[in-house]
Write a structure and sequence with these properties.
The protein is mainly α. It has 14 helices and no strands. Belongs to the cyclin family.
């Protein structure tokens, strides 16, 4: 079964943008308190990047790319925990400059100040160069967000006009963000993760007419049925936990607290939203 051109292009590029599986396993095997990077530290850093994404009102595409860059970097280099904040912010800044409009890109000094880090702009720029070298200067990557966009568009085409709102893309984006906050899902192919989210949402919204569409997309993507089922189960568990009070969610309150009126006046960009920070929509059914 031949895939549509947009999907074919993403599937062809997908293998070039994956983090190293061996590096991800090393982080998962790491123990907190040592000199090695761990999955827990990585997840904390990604949640901080999500807080920044929400604070600035940046696109989900920016966050997804930042996570991809960070995972590719951490899986290729033995980063000490003390350098994680600088590495994470460097990946985030690269993603922002790659995706967002130039007029919305904050100054490096402002980004460091808002993030409450103590390193300098020079430190950030040095780390940015190291990240670029380790990802072979390939900043643009094929991400789960891009697959989510394509799958959503292809799925929605099959719905009658009165059912177009059956799937809400904002909810799908929120679910992807939640998955990105766990290193586990960095081991899934972006295409598999995206289709797992779509398939689960179709079940949740009882869009029975789209079940065949998911099977069609699976075949067009040459995706193993067992793999899709396996990751669907893990995504479902993740979203259930994320919706519960036990899950640690991005701390936008910390960002809101740090930006005083005086600091806000010093910032040179008008897009800082201090009193109305965007939040992730509820993930429950």
């Amino acid at each position: 079964m031949v895939a549509p051109p947009a999907l074919s292009a993403l599937l062809e590029q997908e293998p070039r943008s994956l983090p190293k599986a061996s590096g991800l396993r090393l982080m998962e095997a790491g123990h907190d308190g040592g000199l090695r990077m761990t999955a827990r530290l990585r997840d904390f850093e990604v949640r901080d990047l999500l807080s920044l994404t929400q604070f600035f009102g940046f696109a989900t595409e920016t966050f997804s790319l930042a996570v991809n860059l960070l995972d590719r970097f951490l899986s290729a280099v033995k980063v000490q925990p003390k350098h994680l904040g600088c590495a994470g912010l460097s990946c985030f800044y690269l993603a922002v400059k790659s995706v967002e409009e130039e007029r919305n890109v904050p100054l490096a000094a402002d980004l460091i100040r808002i993030s409450q880090y103590r390193f300098t702009v020079s430190d950030l720029m040095r780390m940015e160069k190291i990240v670029l070298e380790k990802v072979c200067w390939k900043v643009r990557a094929t991400t789960a967000f891009q697959f989510l966009q394509v799958y959503y568009s292809l799925t929605r085409e099959k719905l009658p006009l009165e059912r177009k709102n059956c799937l809400n893309f904002e909810r799908l984006e929120a679910q992807l963000k939640a998955c990105h906050c766990r290193i586990l899902f960095s081991k899934a192919k972006p295409s598999v993760l995206a289709l797992s989210i779509i398939a689960l949402e179709i079940q949740a919204q009882k869009c029975a007419e789209l079940t065949g569409g998911v099977e069609c997309l699976q075949k067009q993507s040459k995706m193993n049925g067992r793999d899709l089922t396996f990751w669907q189960e893990l995504v479902s568990k993740c979203l259930t936990e994320y919706s519960s009070s036990k899950c640690s969610k991005p701390n936008t309150q910390k960002l809101k607290w740090i930006v005083s009126g005086r600091t806000a006046r010093q910032l040179k960009h008008s897009f800082y939203r201090i009193t109305h920070l965007p939040t992730i929509p509820e993930l429950g059914p």
